[in-house]
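User: Um, what's this?
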Amino acid sequence: MTTSSHTHTSRALADVVSLLNALAEAPDSRAFFAVLCRALPRRLPATRVDLLVRDWADGMCLPLAGDADAPDAPADAGQDANVFAEWLAGSGYASVAMQPLNAAGQHLGWLVLARRTAALGADALALAGQIAPLVALRLLHDRSRDEVAARDDAIAALERQLRSHEELRLRATMAIGTAHDIGNLLAAVVGHAQMVQREAPSALQRDLQTILRAARDGNVLLRRLIALKSGVHAVAMQALSLPVLARDAVDLTRPFWDARQDIMLRLQLQPVPPVRGSAADAREVLVNLILNAIGAMPGGGVLILRSFSDDTYGYLEVIDTGQGIAPEQQSRIFQTLASSREEGHGLGLSISRALAESHGGMLTVRSAPGEGATFTLALPLAQPGERTLGEPVAAAATRAAW
């Protein structure tokens, strides 16, 4: 080998080493492929170079100087290396070589060299063999980085969910503990009310009975909350008198309307067959409806409770002459946390409808703006022979004089 030939070979080798070092030191993919695009036209003149990566729908093509008239690859070129090679041959490329992109035991794609006239010599193939592993490592690095980033995002999302679930669990535990403690307080209220009731004059007996009923219903509601921890909530179904339940609800809500001279109460409670349900749950629904009706009449009005029945259900209507409800809001008011009043929490009607439906009944509304609202609680009629939970007929008749 002559000195000139040796010098040329040494310079070419130095160029290759310099290129490989530059590729290895590239900080990111953009810099990596920028180095490659600048170097390959000089190292592989008149050569088309394409990068086919298996994870991409289209091959990543690097057209180089010396083949400026190269046609664009078809849209599906990167999907099959053999199909791409056939397309190159059909496009006038006489010499085609494919160098596999392998790294860490994975096959990522192909580095494709193509020339129209001159054959791809040993130097070109050797350079491709040296570049291909670095390209494969860069692609594998990028893929691994993206996978790690995706896993980190997924882990972060799971950690946020776990924190949220733990927070909800702690709140639920505190709520259940609080419900237990409130139950103890209500038990004390019941005990003291019973002590007072034994010696209280007859004029106070009705109010004391209402206090006892409210405290016992409160205990039922708290047991429902505590039962959520086990996921089991057994409801004691009984045959109920709707007129009696209505009068009970009126008693329970008396402090909210009795002192208001602008609220007139009318009871239109016709005898109806017994219905089937839970007395505490039914009273909860009626109390919610009465309080809502009072809230809908800030300037006063008439509150009407009316009972009737058909062959399937017993019905109790709570009617107000207040502001009314717009048609577009009538479906929303039964949704959780939806309220038409600023001071409302959006829970009463959603819970009331859920209770009615859990008893096989319904809770519906009819209203128009400025014309008041009528809420109708429908409960299925009790089966023949079921004992009706209510008060003696004489007591019920006495109350009917309100």
In short: The chain is about 50% helix and 20% strand. The two ends are 125 Å apart (CA to CA).
